[in-house]
Amino acid sequence: MPIYEFKCLECQEFNEILIMGASDQQVEMKCKRCGSESLERILSTTHVAMAGGNSAKTPTESRACSGGSCTTWNLPGHTS
Asked: Is the pTM of this model over 0.70?
């Protein structure tokens, strides 16, 4: 099930919101702490596990974007 992460622009709280695929479904998009509707979607980290796969970990990077949202991404194992 798709869970999306949002950051409240008012109180800086991170919120996880379950959004199903149905276009006619109403989803309450409010901060759980302050009730603000000023939310910004953030990129969530992911983890993939493969049965019988190699247990070696893939290196990942975590970076904060200065001045708002990121427009470029550096993903491990991906060349642009």
From this structure: no
